[in-house]
TrEMBL record, chains A, B:
<keyword id="KW-0378">Hydrolase</keyword>
<dbReference type="GO" id="GO:0016813">
    <property type="term" value="F:hydrolase activity, acting on carbon-nitrogen (but not peptide) bonds, in linear amidines"/>
</dbReference>
<protein>
    <recommendedName>
        <fullName>Peptidase M20 dimerisation domain-containing protein</fullName>
    </recommendedName>
</protein>
<dbReference type="InterPro" id="IPR036264">
    <property type="entry name" value="Bact_exopeptidase_dim_dom"/>
</dbReference>
<comment type="similarity">
    <text>Belongs to the peptidase M20A family.</text>
</comment>
<dbReference type="InterPro" id="IPR010158">
    <property type="entry name" value="Amidase_Cbmase"/>
</dbReference>
<dbReference type="Pfam" id="PF01546">
    <property type="entry name" value="Peptidase_M20"/>
</dbReference>
<dbReference type="InterPro" id="IPR002933">
    <property type="entry name" value="Peptidase_M20"/>
</dbReference>
Length: 426, 426
């Protein structure tokens, strides 16, 4: 297979750094490349990198489709007609993001097409690089946004109306798409604009591969997760004048809940945390009459997540009982566990074993959601490849994976795509 | 004593509401008087009520002294010369304050002088109403500010340099004093501008009198308290991708500390809370790498407070131990317990017993600090009188004490001042 395809060393990493000029920010080290990124979805900086991607893929002879939610499909022809085998991810970043999250996935797709071209290689069927709009949900508060429209999970008009939260004067998704010229003509629909498969190379964003000294994560799915908003109302009282037994201290209640959530999720071998919390009036000598926070709970299985939620509801009720604190419990977001396609997983495992050795690979579940969840929802055979993240850090300017780690990930992706294509009989 | 002094019913409460026009804000009920107050220290609104107080006391024949930190001393002559018996408090409020905190103390002093005048009563020795500058510490972040300068506890030049935190363009105390014409000529000094005694009528700001159905709190002192800043540093990690045992979760640590502080202070019969907390980045799916908060701990005795602090340090160290969270522990503020003058306390108790009956009085410790702490520091015989606060609420627009409660408090204050004066032999 791709063993015969010559790879140009360092071109992928050079491309990552070259295109980071559109949004580079937060310098943290001596080298020019030691920066983070702020390339918000549908911003001017993101328009620049989109334009560049379109040009680069057109230079390779690709046909480029832009759909009505701004997703870019750059399609490299195969020997036969058919739905493309896609390599997709996103070019937008968090406001204080890094150079790899999402970007690696799109640019390694481009690098595959460039490698085909260099080698005068024509796949059996078309191969596409896909840039999905607003995966981060940072500018427009809906993550995995445009791939979920394409998958038929979200309604396009609902999505068009979402307003930005990072602009002084909020604008809608539709206005932003129009303003940068990326509201395309292609219908955002997995039925009329189908893909045959979807592969996504991504940084782990966690510490497991690094800690276990593995090179490649063979990702079998994405864990289930829920965000639950808890609003507590009590009484604003003077800390110096209110006896301990006459208080309705919402912050103390919130602290107890945080600990219970921690214990319960550990018991069920899930993940649970409180990371967003708003205390009011937030003054040293006034007991907070309002504390609002969000629980983030996750489990590899849907049943496991349900057990955690049930235990939390029951334990939290016990904490509230007998106090003057009033609680509102609100499910803000829920995602069932995603199971990737077995054939795709097996191809990744086989290619990774060939390249780094089976002892350097690890079957794992993704902790975070990705556009690959949308393609799975659209019943497109999908899987992901992870490479290590230094210190497990992501969504942060110091997010880092080494050129060597990136090269290994790219080789596995290239082999996976070529293998999948070669096995296609449609 | 004052049993012979005729009181004009409702004049004090009418004066409270009349002068609330300078700063009235946050209407919460149907009546015109159903508002809170925003009358920040040395603001234009506070200048108006100061000017009015000076005029009203001058109409009564008072000699008015303004000291160099803006404290107002309006002195009503007695039959003999001597340091005045003072009735003092403050006319400034919190940004979202009520109509009674501080204001009641100053205006009841004025009402005593008016009552003297109505009755053609001349005390043995001078009696003064005192308005202390910036008790709240809301505009200039130093509470009990100007009385502590007068008491020799704070240095005037340090205080002059404090910048406002509520103005868009911060100005210093000195600039604010000058701009409203209240940097007076009198030295701010308890030695050169002495008082013979200091009485302060104040709302309780807590729920105890109301709950126990008492009319008058005979205040014997102010509890000791400390504010301790705790800064925690951990790692910002993705909540979905970071195993529970690889986290350095500063918020979880902070929650554990809040619960330990609650348990320890209850064990020692003190008060303890966390009410101000700053979590960063404060995003639902990023474990906070920074959590900063302030402990507010109080006890009626200095030894009790020390025991609480020692237990907290030891228990918090245990929480931190073995984690990757780093802690900084910083004493931000400390106030020893204040013990008021026994003779003054006894006079208040005697007068309160005569007016409301001993079963309607309660000896109590003030939970909050007051200007009476400064006069005690200056070795001026001092005590305070509390009246009930509805729902224990203060520093809030709905802060409320009824006209009947205010009248009872005023009568006790009047009797106390007359009794103290009549006992004086200097």
């Amino acid at each position: 297979m791709s063993a015969s395809l010559k790879i140009i060393p360092n071109r992928l990493i050079d491309t990552i750094h070259h295109t980071s000029k559109w949004g580079a920010k937060f310098k943290w080290g001596a080298k020019d490349t030691n920066t983070g990124m702020c390339r918000l979805s549908l911003s001017q900086d993101e328009k620049m990198v989109r334009d560049w991607l379109v040009q680069e893929t057109q230079k390779l002879g690709c046909k480029v489709k832009i759909d009505e939610i701004g997703n870019i499909f750059a399609i490299y022809s195969g020997l036969k007609e058919g739905a493309p085998t896609a390599i997709g991810s996103h070019l937008d970043t968090q406001p204080t993001g890094g150079r790899y999250d999402g970007i690696l996935g799109v640019l390694s797709g481009l690098e595959i097409l460039r490698t085909f071209k260099d080698n005068n290689y024509t796949p059996q069927y078309p191969v596409a690089v896909v840039n999905w709009t607003n995966e981060e949900g940072a500018r427009f508060p809906k993550s995995i946004m445009a791939s979920s429209v394409w998958a038929g999970v979200s309604d396009i008009n609902d999505i068009y109306a979402i307003e930005s939260i990072t602009d002084e004067k909020p604008i809608t998704v539709l206005e932003a798409l129009t303003s940068i010229g990326y509201k395309g003509d292609t219908k955002a629909c997995h039925k009329t604009n189908p893909l045959k498969a979807h592969f996504e190379l991504h940084i782990e964003q966690g510490p497991i591969l690094e800690k276990e000294q593995k090179d490649i994560g063979v990702v079998t799915g994405v864990q289930a997760y829920s965000w639950i908003g808890i609003n507590l109302r009590g009484r604003a009282q003077h800390t110096g004048t209110t006896p301990m037994d006459m208080r309705a201290d919402t912050y103390l209640t919130a602290a107890k809940i945080a600990i219970v959530v921690n214990n319960i999720t550990k018991k069920h071998r899930g993940l649970g945390s409180v990371a967003e919390i708003h205390v009011s009036p937030n003054v040293v000598n006034v007991i907070p009459d309002s504390t609002e926070f969000v629980l983030d709970i996750r489990h590899t299985t849907d049943a496991g997540l349900q057990n955690i939620e049930a235990d939390i509801e029951s334990e939290v009720s016990k904490i509230i009982k007998g106090t003057d604190v009033i609680m509102e419990f609100k499910k803000l977001f829920h995602n069932d566990a995603t199971h990737f396609n077995n054939e795709c997983i097996d191809i990744v495992q086989e290619c990774a074993t060939n390249i780094v050795g089976s002892n350097k690979t690890k079957k794992m579940i993704s902790g975070a959601g990705h556009d690959s969840c949308s393609t799975t929802n659209a019943k497109v055979p999908t899987s992901m490849i992870f490479i290590p993240s230094k210190g497990g850090i992501s969504h942060n300017p110091v997010e880092y994976s080494s050129p060597e780690e990136i090269e290994k990930g790219f080789k596995v992706l290239l082999d996976t795509v070529v293998t999948f294509d070669s096995k296609r009989t449609d």
